[in-house]
Amino acid sequence: MSRRRIGFWYRLAAAIAKPPLLVFFKRDWRGMEHIPADGGFITAVNHNSFLDPLSYGHFQYNTGRVPRLLAKAGLFKIFFVGTMLRGTGQIPVYRESTDAANAFRAAVDAINSGECVAFYPEGTLTRDPDQWPMIGKTGAARVALLTEAPVIPVAQWGANEAMPPYAKENKFSLFPRKTLRVVAGPPVDLSRFYGQEPTVEVLREVTDVIMMEITELLAELRGEAAPDALYDPRKAARARRADKAEQAARARLMTRKPAPRPVKNPTDQQEEA
Question: Which residue from 9, 129, 255, 261 has the highest number of Cβ atoms inside 10 Å of its Cβ?
Fold first, then answer.
């Protein structure tokens, strides 16, 4: 594939990141043939480690079609990191602000210009206890329906073994040497949704279709059966709150003292006799 669009800043980033990735990790890459050689497209990637953008970025860089990722706006304020993000054309995401729509417009413009835009639809590290993908946010679905660009599902596994999500101990483990596994699948068939009004229900369904495609690819990488349903952190949080409330109610019942039995006075006892 042509490398004409990679540019100076991406080459610099690769020169910095690739040597330690090659030294400290093994690679198991599959499905590169599914990355389009030309034209704009979307990749939708699962997220289970702070290290996995490097793992996925290495994979995609070697296809010759470098991605523009949506990154938290705060990262652009860090001097060196921000310089590299801006230089490589990454897209800042301003959450809960009047600038939040800018990321959406930038993604659409990039795809219409023939570039690749990478989405982490989960929006954060997965909270699934077994590190399967969660229910995704609808941003990728919205861009996909608007542009009708190919959506390439990408699953990755292995970066989470070197840098586990939410770890309190052993936050980074290089040895024994880990294998960074990345697989890209064929484009998700979303043709039945094209032309439909992008209602909340339609966007939700499109997002679920994309996330299930990623989950199936991840099951292939892990050699395990995927769960029947995507993990929903909101439902899980409600279930935990309900469980805590039930446990608290039981504890109150267990600690409640029995009501004292009434003591009969001597006069009442004599009358009964």
Answer: 9
Q: Which of 58, 46, 47, 49 is nearest to 20 (CA)?
A: 58
270 confidence band (pLDDT: 50, 70, 90):
low
Which residue ranges make up each domain of the chain? Answer: 7-228, 235-272
Q: Does the predicted TM-score (pTM) go above 0.90?
A: no
173's torsion region: left (phi>0), alpha (psi -120 to 50) or beta? beta
Is the bond preceding 19 in cis, omega lying within 30 degrees of 0?
Answer: no
How do 25-30 and 67-72 pair as beta strands? unpaired
- Where would I find the beta strands (DSSP E) of the chain? 25-30, 41-45, 67-72, 91-93, 116-119, 151-157, 178-184
* pLDDT 10s digits, 251-265: 888 877 666 666 666
Question: Do 217 and 185 meet the contact criterion of CB atoms below 8 Å apart?
Answer: yes
Helix (H, G, I), strand (E, B) or coil at 259: coil
Spatial contact of 162 and 174, defined as CB atoms under 8 Å apart: yes
pLDDT in tens, 9-35: 899 999 999 999 999 999 999 999 999
Question: For 74-82, what is the mean pLDDT?
Answer: 88
CATH number assigned to the domain with residue range 7-228, chosen from the 4 options 3.40.1130.10, 3.40.50.720, 3.40.630.10, 3.60.21.10: 3.40.1130.10
